[in-house]
Sequence to fold (463 residues):
Amino acid sequence: MQKITIKYFSQPSVLLGSSLVLVSLYYFLSSCYINTSNDGSHFALVSALVNDQKVSIAPYIDYTGKVDYAEKDGVYYSDRLPGTAFLMAPFFMLGSLLKSFDSISWSSHHSLQEVTVILLPNVCGVIGTLLIFLLCRHFKGSFRLSLITAILYALCTLNVQESTHVFSHAPSMCLVLAAFYLLLKIPDIYRNLFFPFVFLLSFSVIVELQNVLLFIPALWYILSTSKMNKTLDRKTMKTLIVSLTILLLTVSVLLTYNYIAFGELTLKSNKYNPVFPQERSFFTSLSGNFGNGIDRLFTNFLNPEVWTHLELGVKNDIPGLLVTSPLLIVSLVGFFPFFKQYRKEALLFLLIILINVVIAALHKTVLTRHIFTITPFLFFPLFFVLQNVNQRIVVIAGIALLAAVSAFRVYYVTHTYWGRELSNWLPFQHELKIYLVYFLLLILPVMLLLTRKYREHFTKRTV
Fold:
């Protein structure tokens, strides 16, 4: 019996599924309630949409802290793009449903909706972890190495922080990464998976607006890899027209929302934020110091105290990616073998990174989390380094040390964010009943499906 049990849990499909469940549990326990003006603004909007079927957030304005909001003609609105609130809505309604079971003590110190909406970034973070695993497999990685790479991403990057509060960054990352994974998988644009790629990338635009620029590297990759016929034949024209229609319809949702709120056609939902007047236009919002922005996003050479004084690099002063997650330095090295083996794919990843970094660095307000969407693309080349370690103990030890430092720093910045304390190292430990419902309704069915599909796929590969 013991041998059968060990054999079962050593199966690749079960190892993958159980690893993702543990990651989801860690993210949930590490989550916190609505505690900043940013997630508060998203929460205020979803509350107004679901409870009142309105875009005015007047009854919920306190959630914004009178910081992340918009005001026009004396009416209060969220200054966030509506995409995140749309995705939050099912989780918000789950909280309302659980609330109706008043005979059950859910042990929540806040409204149940404040707990259940956190499940959205939790889900996005786990999907991001799974997609890193699938990317490794796509690039011919072994099961073990792919799983190790995915777990390192889950624990050693800001995926931890962004998966534990309701900002727009986790949904944006998840949508963009899923979209480009599909693009890599399809041999040409005439396959069924191409339109889901277009939709996912289009929807990411109403979550974070700069994602619209990622259609540029996508188009370059399609053309450079001959995924599209060079002649505009009937099949190509039909595909392009449908794709453009998906993009326009999705963006029109944003335009319609902003028109209902502000009475004008605009892409900027933060145009009328009285606290940040620079957001009135794209020109004024993107008029920052580019050099200082790059340093703030990656290295902090202009503020080296945050390298060693952890207490100085918290909240909005979280250090750049290479300081917070020094394991990413190794991934930079990985771009060389990545480029050597898969030149066009490496260039695609670099273009995605470049576009997001330029936009974020030019912004008047530069924060490390503003480039979280590109974190998996920056992290992924670590896979090629791990693939070429070849039992070199010193290299393995060095990578392990950087991974440990990264995991600790990510944990530190996550648990010193607003409303959190290091002493309360698992804030949602009293919300486990809600996680159990979430597990039974969503995680368990999805994991059973994924592990079954992967078991079938793995069996075919090994026959």
